[in-house]
Amino acid sequence: MAEAIVITSGKGGVGKTTTTANLGTALALLDKKVCLMDTDIGLRNLDVVMGLENRIIYDIIDVAQGRCKLKQALIKDKRFDYLFLLPAAQTSDKHDLSPEAMIEMIAELKEEFDYILIDCPAGIEQGYKNAVAGADHAIVVTTPEKSSVRDADRIIGLLEKEEIEPPQLVINRIRNHMMKNGDMMSIDEIIQVLSIDLLGIVADDDEVIKASNHGEPIALQSNSKASISYRNIARRILGESVPLQSFEEEQGVLQKVKKFFGMREK
Amino acid sequence: MANKKQHITMKGTRDGLSLVLDDRAQFSDVLAELAEILSQKNFDDNQSLVTVKIDLGYRFLHKDEEEQLREMIRSKEKLVVQSIDTKVMTKEEALRLKEENDIHVLSKTVRSGQVIDVTGDLLVFGDINPGGTIKATGNVFVMGALRGIAHAGTSGNKESIIAASLMNPVQLRIAALYSRSPDYETEGVTMECAFIENEMIMIDRIQRVQKKRPELNGFERSVLNG
After folding, report:
1. Which domains, from first to last, does chain B contain?
2. What residue stretches are annotated with the Septum formation inhibitor MinC C-terminal domain (chain B) (predicted)?
3. Which of A11, A68, A247, B160 could staple A58 via S-S, CB 3.0–4.6 A?
4. Which stretches of B28-183 are assigned E, i.e. beta strand?
5. What residue segments make up the domains of chain A, in order of their start?
């Protein structure tokens, strides 16, 4: 049964689009048929992160207003056979899209794909309502900052009103040393406040920015921390149970020996 | 004839005049009789004011009927209506009274942007997150962490309290007073309670409440509220 998952956060700039692109890539790596939907009308950038900007001919508004068929607007990814993108429009505004049109499109996409990931715009008005309309699931992205957690809380409250399964949480941009020093909210603290299930944690990694600037989602690389995080989240979406990864810094030889003998730092 | 029968029993007490109106008679008949009685009574100017208590028995009066009655008595200069008592009330009023004295139970997390507003007392099983607001005309009890805003006694009841398992609010409001959290980060305190003392919101251990607000006990409260 196909699943439509909306990726939302309330606050802007916490990594919704990056998360959508990477989870889509990671699910495609696991041989799933995936469609990414960008609903951030007027401020699209999922296509840029995926490196597919130059292939756009039709967009989601063209589909909603009947100027083209849904299949015509879908853009096939350069790396995978079954990863597609439905891009947002750059010139229209969010009122050109309606929740009803979204529900219709998602129903059509569900016949073709296993997973439909919906990239939600920031904010809680029309754009958010459109993005949430056809979703079965929601993933709330937050960073370990108070303002971001506050907005995530607001969004979770709004999602409770929708006919949708309880949302799951992704904590993005974790800086281990800051959390250790107590300069950032800890994972436990965030979960305590938001009281929803944790789907995954992603480290703050310079590689993520580098990769998305090149239009290559980080999940394609096999060695970076963030990439492993996204792949783990994808596996959890498929129902596997994967332990949370630890963000301990690379250890020197001495520390490794100490650890081997059961001695702990600090 | 029936309307020749007396519908009004008048008693003079030390506190003033007491009128018992027969609840079986037509209201118009009662009013007519009252007008007659009042016209017979004459007060001289140097007499002090006389308070009047009216007992309606099982009669229910509409607002305008009640006003008619008050007006009639007020027309005599020396008479002042002290109270109008009745043994009956409307369903709406009864429901309102019930709601005011009820404890409303809410079992959810109150998240940022959500506002819960109840008439009566509010008991929350769950957390109030920063940005969330709970309001009650009565007391507020939180079985969980209070990290948002709580407002007790919204209609002005200064006796109301706010109690929480974990007290770490952004703001506390009781009646028209408010207090805010300190500007530095706090962990919050467990099992605390806020109430007004000396025109200020005080926070103290929950155990202190029994001394400060003995009227919180259910039985006495229902007596107090009639």
Report:
1. 8-85 (3.30.160), 100-224 (2.160.20.70)
2. 106-203
3. A68
4. 50-55, 79-85, 103-106, 115-118, 121-125, 133-136, 140-146, 149-152, 162-167, 171-174, 177-180
5. 3-261
User: Which residues of chain B approach chain A closer than 8 Å at the C-beta?
Assistant: 109, 111-114, 127, 129-132, 147
Number of helices and strands in chain A (H, E): 12, 8
- Token output for A258: 């100490």
Q: How far is Cα A218 from Cα A157, in angstroms, rounded to an integer?
A: 31
pTM beyond 0.90: the answer is no
pLDDT, one tens digit per residue, over A82-122 is: 999 999 998 888 888 999 999 999 999 999 999 999 999 99
Helix (H, G, I), strand (E, B) or coil at B207: helix
pLDDT tens-digit map of B10-63: 888 888 888 888 888 888 888 888 888 888 877 666 777 888 888 888 988 888
Nearest residue of B to residue A191, measured between CA atoms: B129
List the alpha helices (DSSP H) in A65-182.
70-73, 99-110, 126-133, 146-161, 176-181
Is residue A64 within 8 Å of A105, Cβ to Cβ?
Answer: yes
Query: Which residues of chain A have a CB within 8 Å of the CB of B168?
Result: none
Q: Which residues pair with A197 in a beta bridge?
A: A168
Pairing state between β B8-13 and B16-21: antiparallel
Kindly give, in sequence order, each residue whose CB lies less than 8 Å from that of residue A144, ignoring residues fewer than 6 positions away. Answer: A171, A173, A174, A175, A178, A179, A184, A185, A186, A187, A190
User: Which of A11, A140, A193 to probe by mutation at the B interface, max B CB count within 10 Å?
Assistant: A193
Amino acid (one-letter) located at B88? V
